[in-house]
Amino acid sequence: MSRNYTYCEDCDNVEPSSRKRSPSGWVCLKFPRVEGGGFVAPTVWADQEPFMRCVHINGGFCPQFVKRPDGQEQEK
Questions:
Q1: What are the counts of helices (DSSP H) followed by strands (DSSP E) for the chain?
Q2: Measured between alpha carbons, how far is 16 from 72 in angstroms, rounded to an integer?
Q3: Which terminus of the chain faces fewer neighbouring Cβ atoms within 10 Å, N or C?
Q4: Are 74 and 21 in contact (CB under 8 A)?
Q5: What is the pLDDT of residues 31-61, one digit of tens each?
Q6: Beta pairing partners, 51
C-alpha cells in the first residue's frame, strides 16, 4: 500500500521568503507561533519568525497541506 505523504517543499503554505533558506528554516503560514515565548526558555522565540518551522509540524500527513500550483518549482 503506498502512502501519499505531505512534503513541505510541495506545499503552498510555506512562507515564500523562508524558502530561500535551508528546509530546516522554512516556516508555515498555517501555524502561528505561540505568543510570549517558548516552553524551553521564555525568551527563545522572541527574535524568531511569527510562525512555526515546518520541520516541527509536518509528520508526513499534514492536515493543512495545500499543493503548490503546477509549474512552480522549488527555488534552490
A1: 0, 2
A2: 12
A3: N
A4: no
A5: 887 665 555 555 555 456 778 888 878 888 8
A6: 32
